[in-house]
Design brief:
Length: 649
């Protein structure tokens, strides 16, 4: 895992200028690659490539980047891992290719020369952000992996094309001049992240997942080509679904496929471990690792001394059964608060998923012992794990028989009581509640349910569910609400079934823009590589060919994953309400974080900056302090923007 960056200035420059500029850009992302640094420029009007290396495969100088192909035609900087590089290497060797080292980077270059650039990307299995210069065609290719696990930004400032793994690298170039995009800010306020291909800055965008962006000159209008599409794969999978499936055979196929995905991600020349929360996904990944490892697997978890937020005990139980070398870290309020000042530098643009804090802490813990950690990311989106996949379609179907006024009244009744009040009520009645009704943080979930009761369609209900602020244009001054970031009519036609549509939408929105951003920045901020076997594209393609009944059954999501995990871990150990990787944010904002929050939310400060409406923010803050409703997510989005603004401007 590494960091890539560079620029292309058609006006050229002296060698000293080029060296200074690329050094400044690569230094900004040294945390992504503390082991080595490099830069390349042909001096003939081509781009300048910069690199920071976190050595994982072939720790020798033979893995140094930027790296040139054997003929010198291609030069690459590459962030990520290619999990089938050994297969490709074997095929290339059979055709006469020889290699000087053992890195996957060298295999990519040989593959480019042997098979050509156009057919290269679909051959690569893994996670990657690549900048590849073709000296013959004088073209620069910027490439991103299928799901968007690895980031890659680009844009023009002052006639100079800038690109890099993180925005801070682009900002380090003297040509940088990209103001805040108020429409992107409005989208951020709605979702808690900057969605899609845009960034928080005008004119700076992201390479889309599964795509290649090609430039023939720094001032070119780039060509964007998709080599893989999660939505196309999902549609094709649905069309190929059998009417029924044998669950035993399906579980066997899935275990074999996941076993191979895990095995490929265990290849490393450095110490390796796993994040273990005790949930379905991370427990299954750990179990498959333990099955294949030559020794005890290192596992890591963090816990909080707060009811409804602590998964440490469950993780410990799984670790004991699997025999892992387990490390647990109990997080205090003070330790969590110490992370907050680091968040703007880690995330580079406003990002408001508060689980960024425990994610960073568990990454920091793991990095003390290993350089690579496997995670369970992707299981919810691929195998139907989110609670909204169950309650949203069912709620819409049942609510449709009631008039809108009745639905809105029911929603208002649910939101009349604070989440903490509902939590206490459910706790008091837990002895008589059926198992399906026993949820972690039920008050929070009831408030989410209330937001969709008055929705007139599945798409509107989904948008309400994933929106932090439902009307963000009322929060951002001169900002335009983007609404849904997807084509609702097209999605409804392509995925007429509500469950299929929800899972597909999460895969191309929430997964790349929230989950994968959170994990990448948190892990790379500690120089740790994270690998996600459940997001092997072969697993994804296989899963979409399976009937829905294998994903959600008996009132449970991830049904098929549970069957596979049950072969390794007793069901009673993991059969518990889904908790998520959350923190008691609402309580912290009223308590130990109150002073910090009030300073950032000061109306005079907001008024002077001119981005957010002070009256809206202040009213929300006062309601939160008074316990009227669940407002912590909205406030956190404002706080993370303000903290980012303070840090970068």
């Amino acid at each position: 895992m590494c960091g890539v960056t560079g620029f292309w200035d058609g006006r050229g420059g002296t060698r000293a200028q080029v060296d200074d500029r690329i050094a400044a850009m690569t230094t900004c992302i040294a945390h992504r690659g503390p082991d080595d640094a490099g830069a390349w420029w042909d001096g003939q009007g081509g781009p300048v490539l910069g690199f920071r290396r976190l050595a994982i495969l072939d720790l020798s100088p033979a893995g140094h980047q930027p790296m040139a192909s054997r003929s010198g035609r291609f030069t690459i900087v590459f962030n990520g891992e290619i999990y089938n590089y050994r297969d490709l290497r074997t095929a290339l060797a059979a055709d006469g290719w020889s290699f000087r080292g053992g890195s996957d980077t060298e295999v990519i270059l040989a593959a480019a020369e042997h098979w050509g650039v156009e057919g290269l990307w679909a051959r690569l299995w893994g996670m990657y952000a690549i900048a590849l210069w073709d000296a013959d065609t004088r073209r620069l290719h910027l490439v991103r992996d299928r799901f968007g696990k690895k980031p890659l930004y680009y844009g023009r400032c002052g006639g100079v094309l800038l690109f890099g793994s993180e925005l801070k690298a682009l900002r380090a170039h003297p040509a940088w001049d990209a103001p805040i995009d108020r429409d992107a800010l409005t989208a951020y306020v709605r979702y808690g992240y900057v969605p899609g291909d845009r960034s928080i800055h005008v004119g700076i965008t992201k390479v889309p997942p599964g795509a290649v962006v090609t430039f023939g000159a720094p001032d070119d209008v780039p060509r964007v080509d998709a080599y893989w599409s999660a939505l196309d794969v999902a549609r094709e999978g649905i069309a190929a679904r059998p009417g029924a499936a044998d669950p035993v055979q399906a579980a066997q196929e899935l275990e074999a496929l996941l076993g191979d995905a895990v095995s490929r991600r265990m290849i490393a020349d450095v110490p390796l471990g796993a994040f273990l929360s005790g949930g379905i996904d991370s427990s299954l990944v750990t179990a498959l690792m333990a099955q294949q490892a030559s020794g005890r697997v290192r596992t890591f978890t963090v816990g909080f001394d707060a009811a409804g937020y602590d998964e440490a005990q469950a993780a410990r139980a799984v670790a004991d059964i699997l025999g892992t070398d387990h490390t647990e870290f109990r997080v205090t309020h003070a330790q969590a608060r110490e992370v907050i000042p680091r968040l703007p530098a880690l995330y580079d643009e406003p990002f408001a998923d508060s689980s960024q804090i425990p994610t960073f802490l568990v990454a920091q813990l793991a990095r003390q012992h290993v350089t690579v950690a496997l995670s369970g990311d992707g299981g919810d989106e691929v195998f139907g794990g989110y609670l909204r996949y169950q309650f949203l379609p069912a709620t819409l179907a049942r609510a449709a028989v009631f008039p809108g006024a009745v639905r809105r009244g029911a929603a208002a009744g649910m939101q009349a009581f604070a989440p903490a009040t509902w939590d206490r009520a459910f706790a008091a009645a837990s002895a008589v509640l059926p198992r399906r009704a026993r949820q972690a943080r039920p008050g929070e979930k009831l408030h989410k349910l209330a937001t969709v009761l008055a929705a007139s369609s599945a798409d509107e209900a989904y948008l309400r569910t994933v929106s932090t602020w439902p009307m963000p244009e009322r929060v951002v001054i001169d900002g335009r609400d983007p609404g849904a970031t997807w084509d609702e009519a097209r999605m409804a036609q392509a995925f007429p079934d509500t469950l299929d549509r929800l899972m597909a939408l999460d895969t191309v929105t929430y997964l790349p823009d929230d989950i994968l951003v959170k994990v990448d920045r948190a892990t790379m901020g500690t120089s740790l590589e994270a690998r996600a076997p459940l997001l092997d594209h072969r697993v994804y393609e296989w899963a979409w060919r399976q009937p829905q009944a294998l994903k959600i059954a008996d009132g449970e999501g991830k049904w098929l994953l549970r069957q596979v995990l049950g072969r390794h871990v007793p069901r009673q150990v993991f059969d518990r309400p889904k908790m998520g990787f959350a923190i008691p944010l609402g309580d912290w904002l009223r308590g130990p974080l109150r002073g910090w929050a009030e300073a950032l939310l000061d109306p005079a400060r907001l008024r002077a900056e001119g981005y957010l409406r002070p009256e809206v923010v202040t009213a929300t803050w006062q309601a939160h302090l008074a316990g009227r409703g669940a407002h912590e997510a909205r406030l956190w989005s404002v706080l993370m923007f303000e903290a980012w603004l303070e840090a970068w401007q």
